[in-house]
Every structure is written in structure tokens, then in C-alpha cells.
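Posting this for the archive.
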Amino acid sequence: MGIFGIAKKGFGLLGKRAGTIKSVKPAKNLTRRRKDFEDIVKHVDKHGKSSKASKIKHDAAKKVSGIHDKYEKASSEAKKYNKRLLTKTIGGAAAGGAGVIGAHVGAKRKWPKYKKFMESSPTIKDGKLKFVPKKKK
């Protein structure tokens, strides 16, 4: 080890290593991918052995793999979009509900007639429509 090697080691540049891989997630839809690949092999083999058979299998497998990748990417993006849309919808509904409740409470404080009307139930007495106060529980 020369002078430059000692200097690098002294600065810690040679001693760094990548961390250990603890776990690996398997790819999605492996059984479907394998089934499609086996179908390709079966159909190519069914038409007889030729010098181009392995190239046809290889090219077809690449194309099918690309199709699977595009499908999985599109479906995951759609899932994320729908999740965000659902969150926004729920948030908007909650805000709207809170606004309505706040307006109702404010209106009951400001206008006594509104409060009396809202805290009564419409009933028919003697053929006439009347508002009777609701019974408190």
C-alpha cells in the first residue's frame, strides 16, 4: 500500500462497504408470469423444432414480461390515484359536514325563531299543521 492508499484509508474511503441485504420482496404475479412463459414454450414446441425456436421463445418471453411490467405499473398508479381521490373525498365531506353543523349552531344562536323551528316537530292537530316542541330525553 502506497502513500495514497494509506491516505485514502485514513480518510475512511476504502473501508466503506454497502449494508447487508436483510430481505427481498418477491416480484408480483410470479405464477401468472410463469404460466404465460410456459404457454409460449408449449406453443413454440408444438410447431416443431427449428433453429429459430429458442430465439422466438426468448423474444416472446421478453415481450410478455414487458407487458406484465406495464400492466403492474398502471394498476399500481391507478390504485394510488384512487386512494388519494378517496382521501380527498372523505376530507371534503367531513369539512362540508363540519361547515353545516357550524352554520346550524350559529343560526340557532342568532335567530331565536330558527331555533324554535328546528327544535320542534311538525304535527297535525285538529286538521291543522302545528309545530310542537320535541320531547327532551
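The chain has a mean pLDDT of 83. Strands lie at 120-125, 128-133.
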